[in-house]
Structure formats: C-alpha cells, structure tokens
Amino acid sequence: MSITNNSITNARQLALQILRDIDRRKTYTDIALDRGLKQTFLSPNDRGLCTELVYGIIRRQRTLDTLIDQLGKKSSQQQPPDLRRILHLGLYQLRYLNHIPPSAAVNTSVELTKENQLTSLAGVVNGILRQYIRLNNSQNEPLILPNNLVEKLGIIYSFPDWIIKIWLQQFGQETTEKICHWFNQPPSIDIRINSLQSTLETVETKLIEANLNVTRLLDFPNTLRLTGKTGAIQTLPGFKEGWWTVQDSSAQLVSYLLDPQPGEIIIDACAAPGGKTTHIAELIQDKGLIWACDRTVSRLKKITENAQRLHLESIKILEGDSRNFEQFRNRADRVLLDVPCSGLGTLHRHPDIRWRQTPETVSELSTLQGELLEQAATWIKPQGILVYGTCTLNSLENESIIERFLNSNSHWKIEPPSPNSWVSEFASPSGWIQILPHQHHMDGFFMVKLKKD
Ligand SMILES: C[S@@+](CC[C@H](N)C(=O)[O-])C[C@H]1O[C@@H](n2cnc3c(N)ncnc32)[C@H](O)[C@@H]1O
C-alpha cells in the first residue's frame, strides 16, 4: 500500500513520512515539516504532535539510536531505515512525552510497522519498546552510559562528540550541560516592532486580543516574546501590515550594537533574508542608504519582500560575493558583517544543524569569515564602525577571528558599547558580547563592535 500525504489521517504516520523525506532527500527539518503539514488535513492537536515528534526525534537522534543499539539485536544503523524511525517514534514518546500512555506508544508503533510493509518486524518493535518499559518501570535507567565524559554527555543530550568537546573546552562541564539542555527545548518566538508603522503597546494589545501569550523583554524597547502555540505567523494581527518582524532578541541586539544613525551610508555585507537590514532601516527611520549585499539570489528576494511589507525604502540590494566588492572602499559609515557560521547558537530552532555541521565545515567557514572581515574592513571611512556577528558558540568562528584581525590590523580596535546604553549590560570586560542561551534566554550569539582609527 502506498501512502500519499493527503490520505494520512494520523500524526505518527505523517511524522514517519516527514522523517523519511529528511533521510532520503537530506531535506532540512523545517522544510520537510512544512511541506508535510501543508498537504494534510490533521487537527491542530495532531499537527502539534507531529511537529513535536519530528523536531524531537531529530534533536534526540543520538540518544534514541543508542537505546536501539542497547535494546535490540541489531544496531540502529543495521535496521531498515523506516524501522529505525518507527523505533525512534516509539522510544521518543516513551522517554520524552508524558502525556502519551506507554501502551499507546507501543501499539501505535506496532501499527505503523504493519502499515508500512514491515509486518514481519512488528515483533521487533513490540519487543524493544516493551523492554524499554520494563527497565524503566524497574527503576533501571534503560540507557547505559560510557565512562568517557565527552561520549557520555553526547549520548545523554544527543550531540556529536566534537560539539561537546569544544563547549567543554570553552565553558566547562556545568555550563555545557545547561546549554545542551536548553537546545533540546522548543524555542519561543520574539518579534521586533516596526516603530515606523506601529507601537509596542498596539501590537501587544492586538496579539493578546488574538489569545496569544505575550510578554515584554526587559531592556529591549521594541520586542515582544510569544510563548505557546501561535499558529501560522503570517495570519497574526499586524503581520501583513508590516507592524512587526519575527527576529530573536539576540539577533536584534546586533543592530542596537551597530547603533546606526539617520543619514549614514551603511553596508550589510551578508544581509539575506534581511532581518538585520530591515532593523537597521527602522533604527535610522528609513533615512539614509543601506546596501544589502548577499551572494544567494533566492535569499536576496526575501529582503525585497520584507522591505516591501515593512514599508522601508532606504535599502538597496547588491548580489554577489562580498569578498569581491571593491567599489565600497572608504565609503561606509558603518558595516554589519553577520557572517555565515555553524549556527551552534540556534540548535533549538534548527535541530538538524548539530548533525550537518562538522569540524571540517567549521574550518571552511572560519576561513570565509576571516576573508569577509578583511574585505569589509576596507569599506569603512576613518572613524567608522564595523560590527562582526555570528549566531554560533564556537571560539574558532568568534574570538579567534577577531583576535587574528586585530593582530594584523593595528589601526582597528574593539569599541565596547557605550556605558550609557542598555546594550553595555551584555558586554564582557574585553568589549565583545557573547549571549549564552541558558543565561540570557535568547539564541546564542557573538557580536563585537570594531572601530577604525
Ligand atoms: C547569517 S546569514 C545572514 C542573516 C542576515 N544578516 C539576517 O539578519 O537576516 C549569512 C548570509 O551570508 C551569505 N553569504 C555567505 N557567503 C557570502 C559571501 N561570500 N558574500 C556575501 N554573502 C555571503 C549567505 O547567503 C547568508 O544569507
């Protein structure tokens, strides 16, 4: 029996189909989920369950695989791919979802096995899941852990060893565990109010009227946080009118650190999809010129769409590799360099990043980041400002890039945020800002303001 999406009437079958899409086509989780959900008519509750299962299983993949390795006769990698995912679905519900009775987790997984042409393996699924329940009920942790600290934390929190290693080196064990725990929770959504079109109070009132859970964020003048279910963002009050933009508060902090002024020439060297470009335009009251540069055409289109929705006119788009733009030499008052990075600060939003990035991709990224910084620095007028930012928690892409740049460019220095500004609360003694998610309750971010003599 082949199952097409629109015949899917239950959350677990759809979750399996989406996981299959991720496995076979290497599709990003959010894209596969979006595609799967669009083509079905599940109730809001079932859509919620499907989302939780898909995101949770991708996040917890290493822990779940280890359980299969320990409870089954064959390792997780030796199982047929669909069977491995069905076992993930069952084990995830048993281990992480309190609202699903264990018998339902087992029965629905056995059903899935039969519905997906794996009937002869239904006994394997039943056996592994029941063994998990038996061990759990007898107060034995079903997951057996190695002594090696890196591997142990990697298995408990479901991270690859290399990420655990760099965090242990940078932050020590206690903070590493807190960060890992944070990144296994579902994210909240922050929105940035477009003060040229609306006010914090108006947007807050409209969203509360639409039954959303809305909170203000201390210090941030134009930010609201949405917790709980929001439904489709595009249908919320004020979105179409351009009153607000979804942007995590740590990403908002970057443009506050840049502190752009009306009338200035500003270059956003890696601008797409325009979250920070549009924030900069709002901060300068749309008076000035912002060059939004990026080498990815499809992502550049999003800047145009976002600027139109937000009614912003000060943004000009430039397609190409920012390492090659010579025409900007000594032209900019300020440059924002929000470089491509490994994204280790956003692992709760993008659950597959932890499995896609590797030490090799990080090494390529850090070369690119250094080259972009060297080039973007040439665009600045004397006394001008450059803000370098990444949404990662990896010193090779953060402090090391800045240290290397400052060592070879003696006419540049770190400019800490002004002590009168609320942004300075986040700065370290060295002047740069590192946002640790469990401490600041925002995405992980690194940002630093540099000034040219
Ligand atoms: C972190 S994202 C930027 C996010 C954006 N600043 C925002 O706030 O919405 C990094 C961007 O750098 C772009 N990029 C990567 N390499 C580039 C290069 N050599 N020149 C220009 N853009 C580049 C990518 O296409 C991607 O859009």
From TrEMBL:
Parts forming coiled coils: none
Keyword Methyltransferase in annotation: yes
GO cellular component, one term: cytoplasm
Source superkingdom: Bacteria
Chain residues that bind S-adenosyl-L-methionine: 270-276, 294, 321, 338
E.C. no: 2.1.1.176
Family listed: Belongs to the class I-like SAM-binding methyltransferase superfamily. RsmB/NOP family.
InterPro entries registered for this protein in UniProt: MeTrfase_RsmB-F_NOP2_cat, MeTrfase_RsmB-F_NOP2_dom, NusB-like_sf, NusB_RsmB_TIM44, RCMT, rRNA_ssu_MeTfrase_B, RsmB-like_ferredoxin, RsmB-like_N
Annotated organism of origin: Aphanothece sacrum FPU1
UniProt subcellular location: Cytoplasm
Keywords, ordered alphabetically: Cytoplasm, Methyltransferase, RNA-binding, rRNA processing, S-adenosyl-L-methionine, Transferase
Gene Ontology biological process: regulation of DNA-templated transcription
Catalytic activity entry: cytidine(967) in 16S rRNA + S-adenosyl-L-methionine = 5-methylcytidine(967) in 16S rRNA + S-adenosyl-L-homocysteine + H(+)
Keyword Cell inner membrane: no
Record domain SAM-dependent MTase RsmB/NOP-type: where: 179-453
Xref: CDD domains: AdoMet_MTases, Methyltransferase_Sun
Name of the top EC class for this enzyme: transferase
General function of this protein: Specifically methylates the cytosine at position 967 (m5C967) of 16S rRNA.
Protein name: 16S rRNA (cytosine(967)-C(5))-methyltransferase
Major location (coarse): cytoplasm
PROSITE patterns: SAM_MT_RSMB_NOP
